[in-house]
Amino acid sequence: MSLTNTTLATAVALNDVQIKVTSATGFAVKQKIRVDNEWMEGFQIDGTVIKVRRGLDGTAQVAHGILADVVTADAATDWPDPGPGEPVSVPPTNIGRATLGVDTTFVAADFPKGQELTYVITKAGVCAITLGNPSKAQNGLRLTFRSATANAHTITYTAGVYGDTTSSDVLTFAAKVGASCTIEANGGLWGAIALTNVTAA
Predict the structure, then answer these.
(1) Strand 170-173 to 198-200 pairing
(2) Domain 95-200, what fold?
């Protein structure tokens, strides 16, 4: 069997137990599924709705936007597990990847602690993102937002990424593919780590 590629037909929330795909052709029960960078396993299929076990193989269970990349294949032949005695590589950090195709508001409960997450913005027009404060349990969590479309996306964070409220509460992306910003949680606040073709004002 070969890999089957499709996309999400609807967004998937952090704790959803099913996904809806654009096309279920090539999907079967007990197949591995990768949505963005999260591994899942389908255990029931009803049309294009697939009930799944999430966050497998140590991957981050995160929210995924509409039109996020979905790949499936037979676990035993296309994505086999290491054989007995074969080394298993475990990355030092588990970087999750999610797609943002619609305007989104995030609160602390939307993010797991101790993960790095990259959000790829795929909305055809300007994507408006609003961030709430992280919890103190999420200290060290880094979020990267990267534009995959040439639009002036915005991230609004009331406290400001430099801790000065209205002087850095709106991050505006240049209308360029690849514009990005990385922020980090510390003490219940977000702080800027890197801005590339993104301005804070």
Answers:
(1) antiparallel
(2) Jelly Rolls (2.60.120)
Q: Give the pair of three-digit tokens for residue 80.
A: 């086999």
Contacts of 80 (CB under 8 A, 6+ apart): none
pTM equals 0.65
The rounded distance, in Å, linking the Cα atoms of 1 and 20 is 22
Shared fold status for 4-73 and 95-200: no
End-to-end Cα separation, the chain, in angstroms:
51
CATH 2.40.10 fits 4-73, yes or no: yes
Mean of all residue pLDDT scores within the chain: 87
Which pair of tokens denotes residue 201?
A: 């004002």
Cβ atoms of 132 and 107 within 8 Å: the answer is yes
Cα–Cα nearest to 68, from 100, 94, 103, 92: 100
φ, ψ for residue 67, nearest 5 deg: 70, 15
In which residue are the tokens 């959000």 written?
Answer: 119
Tell which residue, 137, 145, 143, has the closest CA to residue 186: 137
Residue spans of the domains in the chain: they are 4-73, 95-200
In tens, the pLDDT along 142-156 reads: 999 999 999 999 999
* pLDDT tens digits for range 97-134: 888 888 999 888 887 666 788 999 999 899 999 999 99
Nearest residue to 146 via CA among 100, 179, 183: 179
